[in-house]
Design a protein that fits this description.
2 domains, 14 strands, about 30% helix, about 325 residues, 6-stranded mixed β-sheet, homodimer
Chain lengths: ~325, ~325
């Protein structure tokens, strides 16, 4: 393992210090317990908080800022943050209008966020994201995994909260987007967790892991490496199957997110995007919004995920609204 | 080699089609000859054009848009674009106020851009970037290589051009920024050029290439892998030595750009940033502006570069001005 680190135990704190310094206009980072908040605390709105294991940057700390999250709680790499982090973050950003947690559906995260909410003296609700249609139940999950759709949920719920909408409305929008979003990932290589020091799984030059999780969890199956268009075609088919299974509209406007898992060049992501957009258009979906890049990563995995969110007027409005975070920025 | 490609010969075109579709609000892509322009052609300004081999995305096509480039000419991977691309791009975006080319100092690019300018029927000038202080003369270069400082030149010259400044003023700002910027890169792994199908160089788990070029060209020397802080310390020392050699100010405000070469996680880039910012502050430089992420890549190389630009009021103003491109966006 070759990584830019000094010591695996200090890596997260050292990186967060850099993040805080580089974005000092935007965020503040607290340690013990560790959480990230906006530099300017928001008033008169629901506080929107997310968190999870590190290694998925820019998610979640990179999405703290105006129009998106009020706070993020980063755990150690691929490890849930602890309830004391969530409680401290909630205390710091709560503005009298309740707290909405956005939690990716992994057993450790769910358990710790639930423990935090039980101790929380404020009105609260939780949106669990579970957009990964690859598998049901996995290494760290009961039910479906929350993956790149989480970025769309955080963006749009953050926007709605900014308007002064109440907790129930924010939760309803988050749940709706989660329902209307389907994702699937594929790995060409494993990621390497710094504390482990070696790749999470072995995979040959001739294989891909179809449906891989963002921690390197197994997907649907090990498949033969093949041309990009054939891989993308199977990924889009899985998404379309999921949309049909959820009895969602078979046509209409979509947001297409092609996400890099860490080590995949942008050139390849745009190639994937083109094939996915083309196949989805053939099926009657119009790509009305797009996002291509590294938005939720699996450390240094070569791989990509495709997410399709079925838009409606409300989701589109909140996707388009101004946002100013380290990881997503427009309109400001 | 495992990559998301269908055919190495079609990879660039397929990727550019995806880029054009994903950013249809922002850019248009032409083929044969291949170039990228803004969707809304700018009027009454110097046309700013860059280009170079592909594989460095988001550079350069990702920097076409308001406040930055008018056009970009992407060559095949790590291969200079041809003069007909540059001429066609210049014809398309010239608005009667002359054309400024921004060219990274590689022999192939220099030769082809010079050939284009000889045939160009418009007033023109060229800024050559050569911010890499690692080596003088290299695999593809006579003199110093142009690397991440090119992003700063493109951003600031693009901003100045937007104000209606004349060709000479735009060239002068570009040359000034190039002089005031020093960069150095380091590789943990090689990149793999798709057409070659195997890594450009061999490097063991115990080694790093200090001063690597963005095409995997040799750097200063092969060194032993060591903790990030020790690597960063040597990189910052090289930059400080270069600043002194250029007789530039030994204190003042700087822009610190920590750039990922393709496969390095953001978490590691922020860790590098923190150490670099801390060392530069000890030496009397105040980090006034920061950029951390993948802005000029070497396909899928694990590695990073550090760039320091000595700011002045003019550079800072043009760095801060609004920009709307696929790769850099703020204020819009």
């Amino acid at each position: 393992m070759k990584k830019f680190i000094n010591n695996v135990d200090h890596m997260l704190a050292e990186s967060l210090r850099g993040f805080a310094t580089a974005h000092a206009d935007l965020v503040e980072v607290q340690f013990e317990p560790t959480f990230v908040t906006r530099k300017q605390k928001a008033q008169n709105k629901v506080a929107v908080i997310s968190g999870g294991g590190s290694g998925h940057e820019p998610l979640h700390a990179g999405y703290v800022g105006k129009g998106m999250l009020d706070a993020a709680c980063p755990g150690q790499v691929f490890t849930s943050p602890t309830p004391d982090q969530m409680l401290a973050a909630a205390e710091a950003v709560h503005a009298g209008n309740g707290v909405l947690f956005i939690v990716k559906n992994y057993a450790g995260d769910v358990m710790n966020f639930e423990m935090a909410t039980e101790m929380l003296p404020f009105e609260h609700a939780t949106v669990y994201t579970s957009d990964d249609c690859a598998v049901v139940n996995s290494t760290y999950t009961t039910g479906r995994r929350g993956v790149a759709g989480t970025v769309i949920v955080e963006k749009c719920v953050g926007s709605l909260a900014e308007t002064g909408a109440d907790l129930a409305a924010c939760k309803a929008l988050g749940d709706k987007i989660n329902l209307r979003t389907s994702s699937i990932g594929v790995a060409l290589t494993s990621c390497t967790v710094p504390a482990a020091g070696r790749p999470t799984f072995d995979i040959s030059e001739a294989e891909i892991e179809m449906g891989v999780g963002i921690h390197g969890e197994p997907g649907r199956r090990r498949e033969a490496m093949r041309p990009a268009d054939a891989i993308v075609s199977d990924m889009v088919a899985a998404i379309l199957h999921d949309i049909a299974a959820k009895q969602l509209p078979a046509e209409g406007e979509i947001l297409l997110l092609v996400n890099g898992l860490g080590a995949t060049p942008l050139m390849e992501l745009y190639l994937i995007y083109q094939q996915a957009a083309s196949l989805l258009a053939e099926k009657g979906y119009r790509v009305a919004r797009s996002l291509v890049g590294n938005y939720i990563t699996a450390i240094d995995m070569a791989g990509a995920s495709i997410s399709v969110c079925l838009l409606d007027a409300e989701i589109k409005q909140h996707w388009d609204s101004a946002v100013h975070t380290a990881g997503l920025r427009w309109g400001i």
